[in-house]
């Protein structure tokens, strides 16, 4: 049997021994590992042996071929304090059972029924804007996607609580890196403001979710949303019992967070990139004018909105919301000529691999037109994986694609967005790839072009 060991990587440092190594620039850190050490690299940080895999075949092996040999990484282990035993954090038979119970809410026919709601929320959102008045488009996308997930998946109008919920989610997400520290369970009890805000944020989110559950328990019935399905689901492997409030809370919280946070960030990065290229913007507007002819988009228009979809695809190549995916080996695992010991933390970064020039020419350029049918067919599987893969592939992927294209089409039909001079757009890689200072842009009504 091959002797266990780790691939080359940077030397150990006292700082990384105590702290989580990426520090202030996680994107640069993992990108540097790949540039310096190739497809497989090892680093010891925060008491963990971490191995970065940066080749599509290795990613496929971990996420698909050998997925049974892995469980979730440290980040989602710690996320359980917020998400509980939801679909994102559960393992094994529990995860399979929960996914089966939730799958009907994401059936293609059910998702198709959400299209009108998405367009309606996008139409209402743009009515708040004034041509020439700068706004934080990142915050606007958070509010918009929160409304969409609230109505389509939770069956509730959360607009009135959008600001409160948005702040609570931001406080939860902001503490992500702290949760990766080796002694977080101890230091979290310290009377520091960041921990107090985190606790208060979790309590606030619980209040909203449990209120929705209580209202639905009092007035049961299928309203065509995920919450209805969760409350009516009968688990055949659990004596035909329905879910407890705690179980429903965990799944609803997962959808609440993942269902709007990732999409909002993808939309914000899309507007940022479009704003950097007048050529892309002009081509987008030409397609929208030609396909829609002034009416709002509908689900039947999606096959014709090809360039709009290419823009979204390219945006998630450059700025994938799920920028880092981690798995922990449950047994010794052979990869790249090395036999990694059990409990090794394996990480894969869509952000890094999506910018690999072996698979993408001019990898740092925003080129939506690269996404032709021929290019996609020739691209190795998992050279592009913004939604993960395998049994844990994002259950809401089809929902997200439809939402992204319809929202971009709806808003770009009426508006152009110009970057505010002097505003710095800085990536902030937390649970998702956020913008550290928001996205200040000035909307311009297209009718005044």
Short summary:
By secondary structure, the chain is α+β, with helices and mostly antiparallel strands. Helix content is 48%, strand content 11%. The chain has a five-stranded mixed beta sheet with strand order 1-2-8-5-3.
- The number of helices is 19
- Low-confidence region ranges: none
Mean model confidence by pLDDT: 84
- Estimated radius of gyration: 22 Å
Q: What level of helicity do the residues show? A: 40-55%
Q: Please provide the count of β strands.
A: 12
Shape by Cα distribution = globular
Please describe what this structure looks like.
The chain is an alpha+beta fold and 449 residues long. The protein has a domain at 1-84 and 323-352: Uridine Diphospho-n-acetylenolpyruvylglucosamine Reductase, domain 2 (2-Layer Sandwich). Helix content is 48%, strand content 11%. It has a 5-stranded mixed beta sheet with strand order 1-2-8-5-3. The longest helix is centred in the middle third of the chain and has 31 residues, at 245-275. It is globular, with a radius of gyration of 22 Å. The N and C termini lie far apart (69 Å).
